[in-house]
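Q: I'm writing up a methods section and want to include an example of the input and output format. Could you take the sequence below and give the corresponding predicted structure tokens, formatted cleanly so I can copy it straight into the document?
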Amino acid sequence: MKQLTLIRHAKSSWDFPMLGDFERPLNPRGRRDAPVMAQRFSHTLKQPPRLVASPALRAITTAQIFAETLGQTLRDIRVEPRIYEATPGTLLHLVNTLDDRDGHVAMFGHNPGFTELAQLLAVVPFAEMPTCAVVTLAFQVDRWQDIVPDAGELVDFRYPKDGTD
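A: Here is the clean output for your methods example:
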């Protein structure tokens, strides 16, 4: 069995118009929500997942906060440039090329790609993943390359304002 967790970056700041989209940092709400969501995510784990993140500042910062909470180092985060501005097809291809030694991978990235990938892979209860949402899907396969559309099952869906633990 494989598990894929999609984590949309925490809320980012629009306070610096001179920065491009790629360089936008987290805003105060994002810096507050990310550690809370990382802690909530940690309670669902048997062991830490492989971390794979978009290099955009808001996504890599969110991944770093999760890594620290999960007891992983920043070197444990694999930066994957293809996540930034990716289509669902590109993201699925990336999933299909993950290392089969990893049973659980957490990817940090962006909408609309992450929402569309989740909807492509499983029946999910949302039209759009909120910022810092954590969606875990399970697949009854031994190899990442065998993951195809509609093959997943929703295991968990949490976001900062859902009021669950």
